[in-house]
Amino acid sequence: MRCLQRKLPALAGIALLIAAPGCGNPAVPVSGPDSATPTSTAAPASLPGSDQGDRVEVDGRTVAGVAPGLGFPAGSKVDTAFGDPGSATVILTAPPPEQVLAHYRQAGPPAGYPVGTDTGQTLHLDGRGWTVEVIATSRDTTVTFARNRPAEQSTAPPQAEEPALTGRDLGVTNLPFNFRFPPGSQVRDLSDTAAGARLTLVEPDPQRVLAFYRTALPQGFFDVTGDRTTGGTTIITFEKDDGEWTGTIEATDNRVTVSTVHRR
Predict the structure, then answer these.
(1) pLDDT bucket at 201, cuts 50 / 70 / 90
(2) pLDDT value of position 109
(3) Mean predicted confidence (pLDDT) in 215-222
(4) Three-state DSSP class for 17?
């Protein structure tokens, strides 16, 4: 009994130590689910510099230069992808083209990219200093992101070079993706069918047109298959998408004929 009486004060002291605030080692707070910062594996990681776009993981690939906060549809499968800070082009084989178009129609405006034009198979979004182009074919969808260059590049008076023209600018539909026309192009004798397009460029002059395409075709990821001059006529031939599209640029002293052929 005496032994128990001796032990009781010690036990009471231990109890007081445990119960008293500020005694012993302070408790380490553990964040529960409510205090955790939400994360998402689908959220893109931004590259350094707000104008360079996002680096996005899609179908096991890392694509740089995607318009900030936009990304890709769920279940995307990539055929081709290339990008740099400020621009990217990705060809998707899944989901189906109509679902890809629907995704960007719905996701673009809330993310700050309102729809500019929508022809059903081609969609253009413009916002936050970026242009997004979505072009659907029967087999795949090409999504292109491009950072708009700031208007003020220097203190010198603006001498901006005219931009290249798209088929839409000239009313031509059946062209391979990324095919462009020289600034100031004027078209006549246009034939535009599902099998391809054929037209005559009366402006600019033929030498300027040839110089334009010798630079623009490789930049647009076309394979130039021939460039020869015979008897005053220069013929440049090219193809795209493993020969699905082929084309010819035939220049004489006073006019240029451009033709494209879609091999289904």
Answers:
(1) very high
(2) 94
(3) 88
(4) helix
Distances (CA, A) of 95 to 24, 80, 100, 131: 60, 14, 6, 22
Contact criterion met (CB below 8 Å) for 121 and 174? no
Q: What integer pLDDT is reported at residue 16 of this predicted model?
A: 36
Amino acid 149 reads: R
CA angle 186, 170, 82 (to 5 degrees): 115
pTM: 0.44
Q: Name the token pair of 121.
A: 């198979």
CA angle at 200 for the pair 194 and 203, rounded to the nearest 5°: 135
pLDDT given for residue 134 in this prediction: 95
Four-CA torsion 65, 62, 239, 243, nearest 10 degrees: -150
- Which domains, and CATH codes, for the chain? 49-147 (3.30.310), 167-262 (3.30.310)
